[in-house]
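ok here's the first one, seq then struct tokens
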Amino acid sequence: MLPHVFQVEPTSQQQTVTDEVLAALVATCPLLETLVLEGCCTITDAGLFAIAQHALQLKHLNVQHCFRVGVPGLRALAALPRLHFVNAYGCVPSSKELGLHGVDVVVEKPTWWMR
């Protein structure tokens, strides 16, 4: 078990982070609080189901541009008691259908990004 791993940012290895790798990570790092998976296009709802089952300390999740993630996987995150923020920009068109009450969810490009 790796109890002091709190943040994972696979910036240069986005293709190698699969659902299986993600499941193994969250199963062995129960104290994970922040998980940045931006651009990991191999992650699917199965990966989010693993997060919902094992990462009970998770507070922040970034799955921006993880195009294979959908509503079922994001809805599963409602099981995480400490989750406060999810960046799902590029995954789903609306946060209304997710049912993540009390969680700040980004699904659109923020207005400050607009020119």
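and now the second one, same deal
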Amino acid sequence: MDFGSKDYELVSAGTRLCYATGRRNREKGASMKVVIVGGVAGGATAAARLRRLDESAEIVVFERSGYISYANCGLPYYIGGTIADKSALTLQTPESFRARFNIDVRVR
């Protein structure tokens, strides 16, 4: 995958921006190609929404933390010891996100 190519649009995690980019590319008759930088909250949500809007889009998400999605609201319970295993906070792994949404997730 050549990210220097003009076939790709680099967008933030804004769903509306992703959708506008895809609509513009589809009007040209091209398949949509999107790179999303940042996963966890906004990026994963935008990628999943984008997949629902366009099943043929090529979507790549880059996330530096190693986690694509986790339960932020559970962090106080983990810190307080109510939740002992931090893996219980992980909602999606890169593998499960790919299997469910057909989205390429690259971490670390």
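notes on #2: Residues 3-19 have pLDDT under 50 and may be disordered. The radius of gyration is 15 Å.
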